[in-house]
Amino acid sequence: MRKKPTLSRITDIATTRFFNIQSMDVEFSNGEKRQYERLKPPGNGAVLVIPMLDDETVLMIYEYSGGTDRYELALTKGKIDDGETPLEAGNRELIEEIGYGAKKLTYMKSMSIAPGYQSSETHIVLAQDLYRESAEGDEPEPLEVVEHKLSDLESLVYNDDLTEARSIAALYMAKEAIRQQSLSD
């Protein structure tokens, strides 16, 4: 039976614009003690959106990624602002990043990234019934928007430009959700 460990002495070791690095003492139910470190970003989490132009065509972006120092192919994503729900943030990010809004937004699930040491949470949203709309966002340069077919998903996930696990997982989730929708229609 799992019993959650007791946390004590949680201390901020370093703080940046995007992360707090924390140290925490952890005591397990069997009496074992360890010191863990974790990245704890400020804010309300993030949203990752799967924008579907139609039931087969997903809109993706090329965006510079500092962690890999290259342009990565990924899905639309961003921080959830204060007072926003994941669906509202998803629609705002769509409008800012790819020039579309969505009439139909479906919450899929929340995902973590490296939960052993990072506490961030990303909410996955499927966006359908798109319409043209744009607004200025916080990107330092215009993003390249590209279309891909879900029927080509097996080869797309092996594209060297698509390395982000959240985007890959979300694409598989979207493909199955759309398949289920078509079965129920």
How is the secondary structure organized here?
Blueprint: E1 6-15, E2 20-27, E3 33-40, E4 46-51, E5 57-65, E6 70-74, E7 76-79, H1 86-98, E8 100-112, E9 121-132, E10 144-149, H2 153-156, H3 165-184
Parallel strand pairs: 4-9
Antiparallel strand pairs: 1-2, 2-3, 4-7, 5-6, 5-10, 8-9
CATH architecture of the largest domain: Alpha-Beta Complex
Total tally of structural domains: 2
Helical percent range?
10-25%
- Reading off the top of the CATH hierarchy, the class of the largest domain is best stated as Alpha Beta
Helix count equals 3
**Strand proportion:** 35-45%
Structural summary, described in words:
With 185 residues, the chain is α+β, with helices and mostly antiparallel strands. The chain has 2 domains: 6-40, no CATH class; 46-184, Nucleoside Triphosphate Pyrophosphohydrolase (Alpha-Beta Complex). 20% of the residues lie in helices and 44% in strands. The chain has helices spanning 86-98, 153-156, 165-184; strands spanning 6-15, 20-27, 33-40, 46-51, 57-65, 70-74, 76-79, 100-112, 121-132, 144-149. The protein has a 4-stranded mixed β-sheet. It starts with 5 loop residues before the first strand and ends with a helix.
